[in-house]
Amino acid sequence: MLTSDAIKRKAIELGFDLCGISPVDNFPELTFLDEWLARGYAGEMAYMSRSAERRADVRAVVPGARSVIVTGTLYNAGSDPGDGATQGLESPRHQGLTPATAIIARYAWGDDYHDVLKSRLDALLAWMRQESPDAFDARAYVDTGPVQERVYAQYAGLGWIGKNTCLINAEHGSWLFLAEIICTLPLEPDTQGLEQCGTCRRCLDACPTGALVEPGVLDSTHCLSYLTIELRTGIPEEHRAALGTRVYGCDVCQDVCPYNQPSSHSADAAWQPRRGLDLPRLVELWQRPDTDLRALTEGSAMTRAKLTGLRRNLAVAIGNSGDPDALAALREPRTDQPSAADPMVVEHVQWALGPAAPKPFGAKAG
Ligand code: SF4
Ligand code: SF4
């Protein structure tokens, strides 16, 4: 007999920090997706609409599904918040932050979680097949599947969906990758996690663009994570200043969350910052030839933005930084940076060098 407890023990052994079992049911939280899409909050993420029907019920993905095994993996490798510029906190890592530092969302500092966690999930599933006396159907997903994983994580007892839309675990906070196995086994479920945000609304108040339009509701089209990662076109001008020196993603609504203070840390080698991505200077990143920039981000989650997307973000961040060295680098056309000649990137470089960009340190435009 393959028990829920045995699966959870094995998951921990394989490197997951949390594991719980959700039943498969028509949870009310699953129904909001249609309204969220109808409001246009998915922006250009057309795949969300295309997969909406399957996202409404995991039984559309695995017919006869009875259980969802949800894992949580801590990825915060910093000794403190990486986006500490937003909080005025003092610590060794914050002291490494200068106005010319490129800020990268914590989840992207190390190896690509899709690859790392998929191999761990596959190992868990292979072990389950070996241990189970009965044959069963199953699918394993890391983020990219048509699954509303935070809903199942909540029903698997891993935590609750906070007002910042992240899954929050009362003990470990929200720096968690979620990954799951949907299966036809009728496993003993866990108890649903209870909401513990209470009257707090720090995340809503701290969001630089007002993307959290109401508690637990994100308008992606205003979210800096979406704008720097998912968006394939230009970043709307009204959001460029709010980007600050972030070049990939945004951690603000998690940094300010009391459940991340103090924050839990992971010693897993997979999530430690790569050389070159640990508090890099904007100018260092921009000056890299395309081949170099590609090699630096290869195998990390940062490949999702593509090179042109990363250069677009860097241009805006440099404009916001006012760093004279970085602004000078923007003015130098180079043959080993073909992505910088992309018309979208060129437009953002012109913005960064022009009068519209903030010049906080008195750097001259033009
Ligand atoms: S990630 Fe940043 S921009 Fe997006 S909702 Fe959170 S604080 Fe706002
Ligand atoms: S900051 Fe406050 S309201 Fe926002 S998710 Fe954290 S506890 Fe909830």
What does this structure look like?
The structure is a single chain. This protein has 16 helices and ten strands. Among the domains are: 4-32 and 51-76 and 110-183; 281-366, no CATH class. The longest helix is centred in the middle third of the chain and has 19 residues, at 113-131. The protein has 366 residues and is of the alpha+beta class.
Bound molecules: iron/sulfur cluster
**What fraction strand?**
5-15%
Order of helices and strands: HEHHHEHEHEHEEEHEEHHEHHHHHH
- What is the radius of gyration computed over CA atoms, rounded to a whole number of angstroms? 21 Å
Distance between the termini: 71 Å
For the sheet with most strands, the description reads: 4 strands, antiparallel
Number of distinct helices = 16
Query: Can you list the strand order of the major beta sheet?
Result: 1-2-7-4
Got a strand count? 10
Helix content: 25-40%
Shape: globular
Structural class by SSE content: alpha+beta
Average residue pLDDT: 92
Which regions are unreliable across 5 or more consecutive residues at pLDDT < 50?
80-92, 362-366
Which descriptors would you attach to this protein?
two-stranded parallel sheet, alpha+beta, binds iron/sulfur cluster, disordered C terminus, globular, 366 residues
Task: Please summarize what this structure is.
The chain is of the alpha+beta class and 366 residues long. The chain has helices at residues 4-13, 32-38, 46-50, 52-55, 92-95, 113-131, 149-155, 202-206, 224-230, 237-240, 252-255, 282-287, 290-297, 306-321, 324-331, 343-353, and strands spanning 18-23, 67-74, 103-104, 138-141, 160-161, 167-168, 176-183, 212-214, 217-218, 246-248.
